[in-house]
Amino acid sequence: MSSSAPPTGPSWDGSTDGVEPPEGNGFGPYGPGGDMLLPSEEDRAKRQQKAGRRVARATGKAVVTRVQDMFSAGGPAFNKLANAHAASTAGDTLIAIALANTLFFSVPSSEARGNVALYLLITVAPFAVIGPVLGWVMDRPGAERFTLVASSLLRLVAAIGLVFEADSFWLFPLAFVLMVLSRVHGISRSALLPMALTNAVALVTANARLAQVGVFAGGLIAPIGAGLAAFGPAPVLIAASVLFGVAVWQSMALPDVTGAPPRRPIIASEMIVPLDPDAPPDPDVEEDADDEQELEDTPEDHPASDAQLRLARFATAVVRLLNGFLVLVLAFAFRDVDAPLADFGAVLGAAGGGYALASFAAPRLERALREEPMVVAALAVEAAAAFIAGQFFGLPAAIFLALAAGYAWGTAKFAFDGLLQATLPQSLRGRAFTKSETVFQVAWVIGAVIPTGLTIDIRIGLVIAGCVALLAQTLYVSRLLQRI
What we know:
By secondary structure, the chain is mainly alpha-helical.
């Protein structure tokens, strides 16, 4: 007599059909009575928490990887240079936080204009002497690394001095010293950068990557500095001193890079056409490179490259001049109507955000454009933003304008630095960067002095800024076309 096999599992309705349910213990799919349990809200919440933690860990790992790449993608020497730049930028940020309230926001409007004018005066006046002296120093072999270390060490001393003299006459001289040494550090860093790279090809990208490092360091330290500022300027200045000490340490740890070869000079025929580093060598270009080899010793023997740099420096200086003008005209527009400090903080934050945006956009632009069109684009962005903000001025328009101005300055600066680094050999970069940074600083101060000394209606001021940017763009493009 045949018999059918008993069922071996639960039926669709959940019954066991002869199979003994396992003894329930309160865990798993069965309860204490052997009944199947549905997931509770608590179980679902726990699973969601675990999933959230996994996403947070993955995101954190991606951010850490991105930051590590930012600091080390250029090789070990670039890593040390990036570390020194990060510490230097963070220290400068803390100095700015410590001085901002003393110079501007804690005094009446008329006195604020006087304080700003005095600060601008002591900022620009000595550059007529400092520029040539620093250029002479930078001509010496290995001077880039020496000045990198010395500028950080002297800023450490000046920041400690400010801890004790922030309320005295020494505030302005020490602030001036810190500003000048910050520029010396930047010049040394820019001159060293091509030698610190494992493969110095995409120089605009390398400059943008260093800018990303600076933005990351400044953004990380700014809220810490704001918290310390609640207890007065002394804790902020002490923290800045510590960071300058870190910059000294990392600058001294920089490997010897004085023997790194420069890239070949750029010739006028390559000004507009994008250069593909993976393309096969062109015999005509090789012949041109041989003809341009004399630039290694005397840049004056290569008028095309010299004129190329002068034109780019002029256009970049106009961008910088408009930057100074716009920052101060917006500052006094908000200051004169007693706008909340948070409004001006939002405008400054937008300017920094625009610069950060440029640091991420520049590598992509470099793959499509030469450096000169990038400078032209920066002028166009600044002109358009000024005209638009002048028509609809208010806090949103001011934030938009500051964002565009920061983006324009970052784009122009990365492009010019890459052009200079690619065009000049190591022995000439230090002096060239000294001259260029002096020109840019003077341009910024000239732009800032105008709204400081004159009360300008904000809409008229923005129209003037847009017209100046358009004029500079037209002149620059016309001269570029003449040289092709």
